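Sample 3 of the quickstart, ligand zinc ion:
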Amino acid sequence: MTQVEVWNADETLLHRVSVRHAVRMIWRGVATPVEVHATERFGPYQVPVVVRLVRYVEQKWLYSRTRATYSREGVLLRDRGQCAYCGRFTATTMDHVLPHSRGGATSWANAVAACEPCNARKGDRTPDEARMPLRWDPYVPTRVQLHFARATTPTPSPTSTERKESDP
Ligand SMILES: [Zn+2]
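Result:
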């Protein structure tokens, strides 16, 4: 799929993302379309060519490679609120991949974002035992990645459950 340019609030190019990701940014109100395809549509939206962040992201962060300190909030940010098991953007909890009760560490490499139903369903089991394969491998993010995620991914609020079919 074609890539969409993401501009900082000052209209400098930051990076490129998928159309789906860009539309989600527009839908969440963190970016506004600058240029769109005249005819192509993605759900209720015209397919963007360029989007611009509503909030300015400090450029100096983009060059930092410092690893971020682990935090539960950081896990949700790193995974952009997406559940590592079902893939829906409704994750509000952190799941230990190898359960804490079985020696799993509380660390970036053993933590993923998960929605409450998936977290409850997985319970005290490994992904293999629960037959709930991870959609990605957890990793240690840099401070930049978290900073950027914070700027582009508002934490899902309890009120964001009034999602309709228009949710891209
Ligand atoms: Zn889930």
